[in-house]
């Protein structure tokens, strides 16, 4: 469109006369000064365009096109127009001050500058919208980050996509200056986001236990170990409830999931034993009981306890536990005694070191005391000598005075 205007302008220039191509301000300046200023302006425009392109690239990293799609669209359009006008005088500086169109009073340079200015306005508006969105929808974006962290879209892509569309709608409310709508719609969005978080965490950490529980039910484990299976099912339910209450307590969730899986495996083992018992002929009952008693005996002898097979198996187990507790208590008492001895030894060493230090101090004082009298004698002797000399000098002076009088 701009080039069509220029063609029309050229046609009009042929028909009409006296039309000046340069603006009054540039025409009144000396040629060299005008060219120098134009060159500076062209260079500045090139730098502005380069900076604008860098800013636009950075805006995508900050998702400004997602937060404020209309503003980024308009910013791209303004930058494209600025580059188009710049292209008119990029290789021919004389075109910088030419009219940008037949019906325009702006030069190509002015039109390019206006495009850059509009670009900055749109980018600034987009950044403002992003800041406002993150403030108003802080909770929703917090859940959005958490869903991304646990990769909810991998497990429930359809639901994740729907929630992303929902939050985008709220973002558009803010961008279109309808923040109240976004605020009112946020609680329902958060409810759905949290539900997806719980669902995803459950699938990540508890799906194996849930599948195992389902398998045990299908395998009719409840026929052989109903109580054990019921306890295992309760452990799975407890883990689910904990996840629903604390979906981000990962360490505790892992512990509860492990406990549930342990209970399920225990139920399977009990079921296996019961099934074998049910299928076992009566003549094998004794052999079966003796096999368990043999295991208890091996443990008993390994721990240094007496053979307790003359007692009921249940009592053997209790006595074995008491024996282990007694040994542990004895070991603990021994450890405490050793720690006490070590502590006393450390205290004794510290006391000895203190005594040695005190002895060294007293020895130094004693040595200083022994050296003190000798020093005193040396000081007294010079004093006596000085007194004798002084008396001799006095006698000499007196004699001299008497001689002079004579």
Automatic annotation (TrEMBL):
Keywords: Signal. The lineage of its organism: Bacteria, Pseudomonadati, Pseudomonadota, Gammaproteobacteria, Vibrionales. This is DNA repair protein. Residues 1-22 form the signal peptide.
């Amino acid at each position: 469109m701009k080039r069509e205007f220029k063609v029309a302008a050229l046609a009009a220039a042929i028909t009409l006369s006296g039309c000046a191509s340069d603006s009054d301000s540039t025409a009144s300046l000396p040629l060299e000064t005008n060219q120098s200023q134009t060159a500076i302006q062209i260079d500045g425009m090139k730098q502005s365009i380069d900076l604008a392109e860098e800013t636009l690239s950075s805006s995508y990293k900050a998702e400004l096109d997602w937060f404020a799609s209309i503003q980024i669209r308009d910013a791209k359009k303004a930058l494209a127009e600025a580059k188009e006008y710049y292209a008119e005088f990029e290789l021919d500086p004389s075109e910088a001050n030419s009219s940008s169109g037949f019906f325009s009073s702006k030069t190509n340079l002015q039109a390019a500058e206006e495009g850059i200015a509009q670009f900055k306005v749109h980018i600034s508006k987009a950044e403002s919208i992003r800041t406002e969105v993150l403030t108003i929808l802080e909770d929703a974006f917090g859940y959005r980050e958490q869903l991304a962290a646990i990769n909810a879209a991998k497990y429930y892509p359809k639901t994740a996509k729907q929630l992303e569309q929902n939050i985008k709608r709220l973002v558009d409310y803010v961008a279109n200056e309808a923040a109240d709508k976004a605020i009112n719609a946020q609680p329902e969005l958060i409810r759905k986001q949290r539900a997806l978080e719980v669902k995803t965490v459950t699938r990540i950490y508890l799906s194996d236990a849930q599948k195992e529980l389902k398998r045990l039910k299908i395998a009719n484990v409840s026929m052989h170990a109903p109580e054990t299976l019921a306890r295992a099912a309760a452990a799975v339910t407890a883990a689910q409830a904990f996840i629903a209450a604390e979906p981000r307590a990962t360490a505790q969730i892992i512990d509860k999931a492990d406990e549930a899986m342990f209970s399920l495996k225990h139920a399977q083992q009990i079921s296996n034993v019961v099934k074998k018992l049910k299928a076992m002929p009566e003549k094998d009952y004794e052999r079966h009981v003796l096999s368990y008693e043999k295991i208890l005996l091996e443990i008993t002898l390994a721990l240094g306890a007496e053979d307790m097979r003359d007692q009921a198996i249940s009592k053997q187990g209790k006595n074995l536990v008491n024996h282990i507790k007694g040994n542990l208590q004895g070991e603990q008492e021994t450890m405490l005694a050793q720690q006490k001895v070590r502590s006393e030894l450390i205290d004794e060493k510290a006391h000895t070191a203190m005594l040695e230090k005190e002895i060294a101090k007293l020895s130094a004082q004693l040595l200083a005391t022994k050296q003190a009298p000798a020093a005193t004698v040396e000081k007294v002797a010079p004093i006596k000598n000085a007194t004798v000399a002084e008396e001799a000098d006095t006698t000499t002076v007196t004699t001299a005075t008497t001689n002079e009088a004579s």
